[in-house]
Amino acid sequence: MLRLVSLRLLAALPNLVGVVIITFILTRALPGDPAAYFAGGAATQEAVEQVRKELGLDRPLIEQFFRYVADLAHGQFGTSITTGQPVLQELVARLPASIEMILLALVLSCSIAVPLGVMAATRPGSWIDQLCRLVTTAGVSLPTFFTGLVLAYVFYFLLGWAPSPLGRLDPMYSPPPQLTGLYLIDALLIGDVPLWWASFKQLILPTVTMALFVLAPIARMTRASMLSVLSSDFIRTARASGLTSTTVLIRYALRNALLPVVTTLGMVFGFMLGSSVVIEKVFGWPGVGSYAIDALTASDYAPVQGFVLAMGVLFVLLNLAIDVLYTLIDPRVTVEA
After folding, report:
1. I need a surface site. Which of 186, 214, 217, 274 has the fewest CB within 10 A?
2. Number of C-alpha atoms within 13 angstroms, CB side, residue 57?
3. How far apart are CA 280 and CA 288, in angstroms?
4. Kind and range of the H or E element at 40?
5. Distance between CA atoms of residues 160 and 117, nearest Å
């Protein structure tokens, strides 16, 4: 296992280097001048040039790149010109908000999609199979921003069941002590049940919006993989041996069908990181996605570069976790494979 982790981390280093180089080049290629934005609309050309010099943007591009790499080597992601705060500090403060929403949405979608896909595969052509197809079609057809706006309009504006879709917590409550940054866990650790419930209610609408988006590919892959496994020779042999239907379905069929589902989960997690940007804007969620969009609007290079690099590191860790899950689900999967 240690060898697997080491090899995967070494193989990911060129990818991270590529992310650093491409992100640096693309941010400089985007339209907009951060010096002009920082100086203000009424600033003279001399004032803009002075700001550009103070920010180091007047230096050659290659020199700016090596200064950026040197800062990364010292664990510094730069400073945001819009907030005046270190980018790493901002990312650490905002990343738990995005991770909490994404993980909860992933758990919700898997708890629905996997059983739905299994039941659809065991009853092809039945009403549950038709329901699975309907859900997957709706999931891939509805844009996340539209779904979020509809849910907020119906459950907050019309029915009044959901709290105001603005932020992680109602203004009546104070955030819990930042132990993990995840409000649900931190509220449980201090034993504050009302605070936990208030945090959970704020998570419902954005979590459901994201879960509907990722439920479709997971359910579709589960159904297709189960149909393939259930028609295999070893499943027919297991049934002929007198094993119960539950044993055949769970121990033999589902376990062998999980590998492509786990692969889909990895891709879905990447989609969730991208769609979280839109969902955070719809619900005023203070995550890294909205932070990056605000920085991109202001041509603030450092937060955008820090956001993309952080997402790259998350992808590396995610792929590593998937590789470990492969070996746990199917011991036949080796490091070389």
Report:
1. 274
2. 20
3. 9
4. none
5. 33
In whole angstroms, give the CA distance from residue 126 to residue 325: 32
The radius of gyration computed from the CA coordinates of the chain, to the nearest angstrom, equals: 24
**Sign of the four-CA dihedral 97, 282, 30, 315:** positive
Please give the average per-residue pLDDT across 107-130, as a whole number: 86
CA distance 7 to 9: 5
Is the overall model pTM greater than 0.85, yes or no? no
Alpha carbons 138 and 136: distance in angstroms, whole number: 5
How many CA within 13 A on the CB side of residue 287? Answer: 30
DSSP H helical segments within the chain, as ranges? 2-29, 34-39, 45-55, 61-73, 87-122, 127-141, 144-152, 183-189, 193-230, 233-240, 245-247, 255-283, 288-297, 301-329
Tokens of 25: 């080049």
Task: Return the H-helix or E-strand segment holding 43.
Answer: none
Per-residue pLDDT, averaged over 196-206, amounts to 90
Sign of CA dihedral 49, 50, 54, 58: positive
Look up tokens 């494979």; give the residue. Answer: 337
